[in-house]
Amino acid sequence: MTTSKEIIEYFKIIDVQKKENQEHIRDTDKGIFGVSNLEIMDDFFNKIRISKEDVFVDLGSGDGRVNILASIYSKSIGIEFDKELVQESIKHNDILKTAAIFLEQDYESYDFSKTTILFSFADHFFNEKFIAKLSKEFKGTLYIYQGIFTPEKITKGKTIWINQTPIYSYLF
Ligand SMILES: C[S@@+](CC[C@H](N)C(=O)[O-])C[C@H]1O[C@@H](n2cnc3c(N)ncnc32)[C@H](O)[C@@H]1O
């Protein structure tokens, strides 16, 4: 079975290649692709005590790294609009062989009724319609990495600090 350490090391190598090819950040049709730090994310998963009972969803999963790592701890789904990034995620997972699931779709049309943990390294504010949809369907905690685009009017939970990086929580 692949370990979280192996996943972190694998993406460190990928990041060196990405930086050389200037592929580590780019525009997508829905926003901006950039990546979360997996060492921080691994500490985060341990801190929130995510478990096999959870259904974790990454809203805008980019190259799949966060939901590949999350799959070590729980059921894990990444939703990404950009076709190339979804294909790249599948390619990474073919090597890492985890149970992570990748969906190529607009996350605004996903049914969140079975999701228990939502994660977003948001690249824009959520619109009111999407927040209303989440309020109706989702019963759990939404975590926002770095917290620039945080949702208004949703009850704020504890902020988790890892190595000076805040991950904000919102209770649905
Ligand atoms: C900043 S990246 C974060 C990638 C990944 N979650 C991580 O933390 O490494 C944000 C991603 O969200 C995607 N995205 C933005 N809006 C979306 C939407 N409505 N549906 C699906 N993907 C979306 C973008 O294409 C981009 O790849």
Please provide a written account of the structure.
The protein is globular. 33% of the residues lie in helices and 22% in strands. The strands form 2 sheets. Strands 5-4-3-6-7-9-8 form a 7-stranded mixed β-sheet. It has a two-stranded antiparallel sheet with strand order 1-2. It contains 5 helices and 9 strands. It has one domain: 3-Layer(aba) Sandwich (Rossmann fold). Strand 8 (160-162) and strand 9 (165-171) form a beta hairpin. The model has no long low-confidence stretch (mean pLDDT 95). The chain is an alpha/beta fold and 172 residues long. S-adenosylmethionine (SAM) binds at residues 28, 30-36, 58, 60-62, 65-66, 79-82, 85, 106-108, 121, 123.
Query: Quick one: how many beta strands?
Result: 9
> Strands across the major sheet, in which order?
5-4-3-6-7-9-8
Any idea what the CATH superfamily is called? Vaccinia Virus protein VP39
Helix percentage: 25-40%
> What's the overall geometry?
globular
Which short descriptors sum up this protein?
172 residues; alpha/beta; Rossmann fold; seven-stranded mixed sheet; two-stranded antiparallel ribbon; 5 helices; 33% helix; globular; binds S-adenosylmethionine
